[in-house]
């Protein structure tokens, strides 16, 4: 296989190799090759010092730190449309969200055995606030 990487972003190539190293389903040979390629690139498969220091990368124009923070991340997730972003508190016609899908999601939360009691209670409260029958 030809390895012409001249037009590829080296950071993304390195990220792919790092992903291979962290993938539990990747074979030993694949991991060895990925490690060799990273070393050839002058990159270690350990996290970079900047990542360890808490720097954040931009993903779709937003800082990414793998942690959801209420309020801060509502715009990116669309939750602002449901949590006070409109007069109804559910979704407005301009938000791109379907009111019935939102309600269905909360009803599904109540009936999902894998969901905790606290989340189920919040879903019930939301549905009660919007005069939606549940349970």
From TrEMBL:
Q: Per the record, a Pfam family?
A: Con-6
Annotated protein name in UniProt: Conidiation protein 6-domain-containing protein
User: What cellular-component terms does GO give this entry?
Assistant: cytoplasm
Region: Disordered, residue numbers: 1-135
Ranges of biased composition (kind: Basic and acidic residues):
28-59, 69-78, 115-135
InterPro entries for the chain: Conidiation-specific_6 (IPR018824), UPF0654_domain (IPR052670)
